[in-house]
Amino acid sequence: MSRVPDPALSRVVLIGTAHYDFLPALASVEDNLLSLADVLTAEEVWGLPADHVTIVADPVTGADLLDPVVRAADEATDTLVFYYAGHGLTDPRRGELHLALKGSDAQRPYTAVSYAHVRDALLDSRATRRIVILDCCHSGRALGTMSDPVTAAIDEAGTEGTYVLAATAENQKALAPAGEPHTAFTAELLRIFQDGIQGRGPLLDLDTIYTHVRAAMRAKGRPLPQKRDRNTAGQLTLVRNRAHATPADLERESRERARARLEEHRHRPATGMRSRLVEVHDFDPRYHTGGPRAIQGKCSWHGSSCDEKVVASVLVRIRGADVWHAVCERALRTLRTTL
User: Fold this and answer.
1) Measured between alpha carbons, how far is 10 from 8 in angstroms, rounded to an integer?
2) Domains and CATH numbers, the chain
3) Residue 109 CB burial class (10 angstroms; 0-12, 13-18, ≥19)
4) Would the pTM count as exceeding 0.90?
5) Burial (0-12, 13-18, 19+ Cβ within 10 Å), 314
6) Which is it for strands 310-318 and 321-328: parallel, antiparallel or unpaired?
7) Per-residue pLDDT tens for 261-285?
């Protein structure tokens, strides 16, 4: 697929239960929802309209969780994404996965929503692709961890165009580290969406995302995610790759490196050289991409002979080439009077 899914024809439902009446709280789940909504609506990632992303935080009833899924399933004709984060409960008799609500009780799994209801809603959708992301858990673990067998849910990926990505394999723990802004699995997913993957093309497919999340989790000694897909579903594009460099990007980086080299060697306008002061800003190291003096807040116009306080970042055009300098007050006065 040579493009991301059509934002106008796609829907995303983000559901998470962070606060509970009878189970340990998972504060990072709330940040999961907000961060995912933010990145998926970014034009450089997917560009979904905000009203095509539904957030459900701390659902109280089964209808609170299922109604948005049914609506999104009815509206989506291209791609439908369902995400759940929170505690997962299992039926001790059947081993089926249940998604916890605010008032769910580990001893009463019927107080949670059976994943089978979610699955049925997804399978009834006209969407050509259905993506399920489960960052869920069993509640019988110490605060700061989550665990649950999700294999039963994963094995339900039995129809064409369905892809299920789960935070952990059966009987393993999925982490919600105390003090971290996101759960461990979702944090790696967000990192790929936000930063991209170096060395890959302009688009990222589901299997590429899964492989890199798994590698990152393995490198940190954390539980490994697993996935199930039908035929070629894993090869379908989901988001744009923010780390992919276009020819224009490469050209811009080349110009910035050249400017940095000029700045580092304290380039000066020669006598009779046509030059002018283009821009003046309050000093900001982000204008200076390579010169150590400028980045450190030292005057790059006068060079190492100057210990005066830097007051501005200036852009000077010399023979058509633009060069950024960090300048002291004395250099700024000189530039304003001579250029």
Assistant:
1) 6
2) 7-240 (3.40.50.1460), 247-338 (no CATH)
3) buried
4) no
5) buried
6) antiparallel
7) 555 554 444 444 455 788 899 888 8
